[in-house]
Amino acid sequence: MIKKKPEQEEYYSDLLIIGGGLAGATAALEAAGLGLEVNVVVKSSGPEGSNTYWAQGGIVSFGDDDDPELLKADILKAGDRINNPEAVEVLVNEGQRAIERILINELKIPFARSSPEKLDYALEGGHSRRRILHVEDATGRIISTALMNRLRQLPNVHLFFDHTAVDLLTVPHHSTSPLSYYREPCCLGAYVLDNRTRKVKKFLAPNTILATGGCGAVYQFTSNPKTTIGAGYAMALRAGARIVNMEYIQFHPTSLYHREADGFLISESVRGEGARLKTRDGRTFMEKYSPQKDLAPRDEVARAIYQEMINTNSSFVLLDLAGYARVDIKKRFPYIYKTCLQYGIDITRQPIPVVPAAHFCCGGVLVDTRGRSSLRGLYAVGEVACSGVHGANRLASTSLLEGLVWAIRAVRHIAEHFEPGFPYNPSHLRPWYYPENEEEIDPALIHQDWATIRSTMWNYAGIIRTTKRLERARADLEYLKHRIDKFYREAPMDPEIVDLRHGIQVALMITQAALANTESRGCHFRQG
């Protein structure tokens, strides 16, 4: 027996954006400028819940001796040449203008300068030139904060913090009208849980942009916030949108290894400024694995570290900046310096213990160069989307630029084709239903389910994969999914339950994609 709770709040807008990182916030900013009424749903209580906020390295641009063809070649090489050429062209041709118009001119982001008249460009792995714009080592935090502050000033942008997207609202699936099955499937918004009241609301819009970020937190070690569990991938799959390339999970080579650090990232630009990777007994090792040594692409460096950890029976390796730095460490990396010092590590005097961590998903909701998914009315931008820019492996610092460019392009496409009014009878859309007898939530069970998911993904679907490991992962995850789905149907609405349902589905998506692809490419590496 089920009952409908009497409170069923509905919110209408021209555009619904789910996610508040750089891609989602940029989309809201652009849409507001074009006169659209925008609702933005953000799971966290502020910008710190997004991957953008924690991005240290910077955003790719063009350095002094650079040109578009060089950047294009580096992107294609890192992606093992299965990138979408059209998408790479868009990124390279439009990225610089987007940075200047939005980040520099409108938001006044204080990018580092080598002189009052000249921007400073950092070097990162896989790049043939110094071309990374940065704000010391806290680029993402500065950009996220500036974007949110700007959005709060706009009367046609409405921010809903502490709201968790549960499912995309689609027709015909969520329609009560039998005639809806003759219509082309489309997205008309989302069911969203208010984390504070535990009530589900309907956010209705003729256009929806997914900007929910990635899924690193389905792994035991990750540089992502723990809330980054791939909600957008799971919701899009259930809604019927095409998902591709989920096996290509990039592992950042260097996150701080400390039991209390919770995946704190040590930026790739640290190696760009001279730092060397070493075994615990002080031997450098990257020369054995790549002619680019410590500045090889991320997948190569992560696998090399993983292999050295196995060879030396160690839980971590060392990143030595103190002995090789070409810069003033405290000035160039103040945030990393202060954070490491909190854990008793003075990076100006001693090496940093590091371990690879799940960092970025190169796959996702398949979109075209306008951000359109295969489901009408649904767009996706940022890490949740797969535009094809990254191919099998993302080149460092291209993700922020991709989010910026695709957010602009998606909103412009929506505005160009916008028709006022809601395209469906709202009374035919199902309200949210709740169980009559709700099962009590046991936090210990949720914690254990997440521990199982994360350890399974790390051990069996991680940096180096085999058929036996992946098959074991699939079997264990499928059994767990059955239990979680039953729990979800019977439990009261709670953001932790919603996230758990999203997370188990995403873990299975990655595992199944990895099993299906027997060819090693980029950050998907098979040993059998």
Outline the fold blueprint.
Layout: E1 2-3, E2 10-12, E3 15-18, H1 22-33, E4 38-41, E5 59-60, H2 68-78, H3 85-106, E6 113-115, E7 118-119, E8 132-133, H4 139-151, E9 157-160, E10 163-171, E11 186-194, E12 200-204, E13 207-210, H5 231-239, E14 243-244, E15 249-256, H6 269-272, E16 276-278, H7 298-311, E17 317-320, H8 329-332, H9 334-342, E18 352-361, E19 364-366, E20 378-380, E21 385-386, H10 399-416, E22 434-435, H11 443-460, H12 467-490, H13 495-516
Parallel strand pairs: 2-12, 3-4, 3-13, 4-9, 13-20, 19-21
Antiparallel strand pairs: 1-22, 5-8, 6-7, 10-11, 11-12, 14-19, 15-18, 16-17, 17-18
Helix pairs in contact: 1-4, 1-10, 2-3, 3-10, 5-13, 11-12, 11-13, 12-13
Q: Provide the CATH architecture of the largest domain.
A: 3-Layer(bba) Sandwich
CATH classification class of the largest domain: Alpha Beta
Task: Please give the number of β-strands.
Answer: 22
Determine the CATH topology of the largest domain.
FAD/NAD(P)-binding domain
Largest sheet composition: 5 strands, parallel
**What average pLDDT do the residues reach?**
93
**Cα radius of gyration in angstroms:** 23 Å
> From the helix content, strand content and strand pairing, which structural class follows?
alpha/beta
Strands ordered across the widest β-sheet: 9-4-3-13-20
Distance between the termini: 49 Å
- Low-confidence residue ranges: 1-6
CATH level-four homologous superfamily name of the largest domain: FAD/NAD(P)-binding domain
Could you tell me the strand content as a percent range? 15-25%
Shape: globular
As a percent range, the share of helical residues equals 25-40%
The number of helical runs is 13
Number of domains: 3
